[in-house]
Amino acid sequence: MYCDKVIELLKELERSREDTIPPYNNDGINQVLSEMKTLDAEIIDFLRKQKDNLPLDAIRLRRAAIERNKRCLMTYIWTRLQRLKEMRWEIGAILPSDVRQNLSQSEIEWFNNYCKTLVSYMKTIGSDTGLNLTQDTKPPKSLYTEVRSLVDAGKLELESGEVLILRKNSQYMLSRSQAEPLIRQGILEQYSHSGSQTMVRERLHGGTQSAVFG
Fold first, then answer.
1. Mean of the pLDDT values across residues 22-46?
2. Which residues, other chains included, contact 4 with Cβ-Cβ below 8 Å and sequence gap of 6+?
3. Which residues form the DNA replication complex GINS protein PSF1 C-terminal domain (predicted)?
4. Contact (Cβ atoms closer than 8 angstroms) between residue 210 and residue 164
5. Rounded to an integer, what distance in angstroms lies between the CA atom of residue 164 and that of residue 214?
6. pTM, entire model
7. Residue 69 neighbours by CB under 8 Å, 6+ apart
8. Domain tally for the chain?
């Protein structure tokens, strides 16, 4: 049946989670393009050989199949790019390796250009230093948030100039502007008090920094 291959491409996307991107199916796309070329060649052949008695239904069927293949291919590409765009806002400009390896070269170039365009735009708004639109995408209830360190991440230089040691399973109070990038990277998670749990704050003033997260 016509368009079976392109429908399978869309089903691949549908079966995957919305926060992931399945491997770019280059073979599947080439098969769809090959089918479209074959259908177009058949239409041209009808027009050349049967001018006096054109099989209009057959021509319309093939033309409709070509247009459907086009729409489905555009949906496949557009959906993947939309997921990439959402990842830029959720996790930043550095894609996880398991995501990056599933992209085509064109998608990688598109993502890099999108990141550059977004950064350039953010520099033109707000104060002299610009405005990071990827932070606080939802109105915060407080300028500070309680977080738990998921790993031994070393030393974090605070906006005040103090240095905080991030130890696994310890809790801290950080400004949202510093906490959110680390949450996206999987270094911290938001933390809520329950029962008799208390906040653990550890600070180290001065000293040589082995790792600084900004």
1. 95
2. none
3. 141-191
4. no
5. 12
6. 0.65
7. 2, 3, 6, 32, 35, 36
8. 2
